[in-house]
Amino acid sequence: MSLWRIAWRSIQQRALASSLTGVSMALGVMLVVAVLVAHGVINQSFLNNSGLGYNIVVGAKGGRLDLVLNSVYYLSRPVENIPYAYYQQFTEGKFKPYVDKAIPLCLGDMYRDFRVIGTTPAMFNDLDYGGKKYEFADGRNFEPDEYYGAVVGSIVARDAGLKVGDKFQPSHGAGPEAHVHDPFTVRGVLKPTGTPNDRGLFINMEGFYLIPEHAKPLDDAPAARPHDDHAEEHAEKHHDHDHHEEPAADAKHADDHEGTDGGVRVSEPKHAEESAEHHDEHADSHDKDHEHDDAHQHDHDHHAHTPLPLAQREVTAILVLSAGTFPELTALELMKPINKDSVAQAVLPIREMSSLFSTFVDPLQLVLLSLTVMIVIVSGIGILVSIYNSMSDRRHEIAVIRALGAGRRTVMFIVLLESILLSLAGGLAGWIVGHGLIAALSPWIATQTGVSIGFWQFVSYELVIIPGLIALASLVGYLPAVAAYRTDVAKALTTTP
């Protein structure tokens, strides 16, 4: 019989005590694994996601970390806005030579617990994540002239039950007092990316600007703000028209507002007439013909509103990929004039997240890891106590083994193997439970941070667990092994067990 089997039989003879010590070791290892995996994967994901196809984030002056958390991870409250004209400096102005790609973001609205982001189709056509192009599990990207088109992330689609063709209404604020806006239609659902974009609803920026609260009042038109109420009333009536009210009344309403200026977004009479004719031709068969409904929604996206004048536009942030053979050097050159201006600031997401982790997260992780290691050590001491207390009952057994020809070192080695088996069995169970716990909490972690963690995700530090457990088991098993080594065979055989 092998020494491993003898050690295992010894463990089986004391099943209750062995199980308790194994469970305590499993709990300690479970906490170690949970801390290591959660910190390692989230740390890596945050740092990797800091550059989702871009390396600079430009936004209003203020907290640099707030800008990154808000614009990259959609976690913080929206920061102040910057003029749309400043964004144009990156596409056709003085910053253009330094820029390869520039994607605008407009933030401020929510749908349930998810952030609504106004942007352009280039967000998914031009950018990538980890060198991969965005792909759609269903549908497609919205087109530039689909003002009320949207793309939703995989987590949003799953939790909110949204699919292609569904409509959702962004709201400003939360709770029953939240103001609900016009509906947007889902054109596509992204495949899971493991990035914060899985938790976002991305709408056409043109449609975002058509929401009354999102228009910046013109400084040279003081009457524009009082007129907003009238414009909103018109928008609501026109929205009712888009949902199949009497076309004649809406056409008359559009005629009544012909010539309205001041940058307020109203429909042109021509569009109202076209829409009225469109309804007259199809009113009788609308409920029976689903294709007509799609065509009408397509017409709504293209023609229902005139775009917001540039003077009334603002953006929350600009995602910039610097140009050149060495984008990092170009980024530093671009950031200098931006940060000198009083309009905006430019930050490197990776640098900000690295600073956050090194300053706050890493020390906290070290404290948690120290506590969990102490728990493992206490569990190891429990193994020592369990085996040592059993030595008085096992002296006759040890004496029999010695009498059959086993040496002192053989007996000592059997006790050490018993300690190692208990540690490894508890450690393996703790590893499985720890990864299972992380996988069970993965939906909550993804909702809070945008980072998805699976059962099989592990970090390199986990490789230290097995050698560490063997070393700990050998250390705590040494004392009872010495006791077994010193057993007096003659005395133990003559003593009745």
Overview of this structure, please?
The protein is an alpha+beta fold. The protein folds into 2 domains: 3-47 and 353-494, no CATH class; 51-350, no CATH class. Helices cover 54% and strands 14% of the residues. It has 16 helices and 16 strands. The protein has helices spanning 3-13, 15-49, 64-71, 84-91, 122-125, 154-160, 205-209, 227-242, 247-256, 269-282, 290-303, 327-340, 349-403, 408-449, 465-485, 489-494, and strands spanning 56-60, 82-83, 99-111, 114-119, 128-129, 132-133, 136-139, 149-152, 167-168, 171-172, 179-180, 184-190, 200-204, 314-315, 317-322, 344-347. The strands form 4 sheets. Strands 1, 3, 4, 7, 8, 9, 12, 13, 15 and 16 form a 10-stranded mixed sheet that branches. Strands 2-14 form a two-stranded antiparallel ribbon. Helix 2 runs antiparallel to helix 13, helix 13 runs antiparallel to helix 14 and helix 13 runs parallel beside helix 15 (465-485). The longest helix has 55 residues, at 349-403. It is elongated. The model is unreliable at 220-303 (pLDDT under 50).
- Class computed from helices, strands and strand pairing: alpha+beta
Please compute the radius of gyration using only Cα atoms.
33 Å
Query: What's the main sheet like?
Result: 10 strands, mixed
Please state roughly what percent of the residues sit in beta strands, choosing from under 5%, 5-15%, 15-25%, 25-35%, 35-45% or over 45%: 5-15%
Give the fraction of residues assigned to helices.
Answer: 40-55%
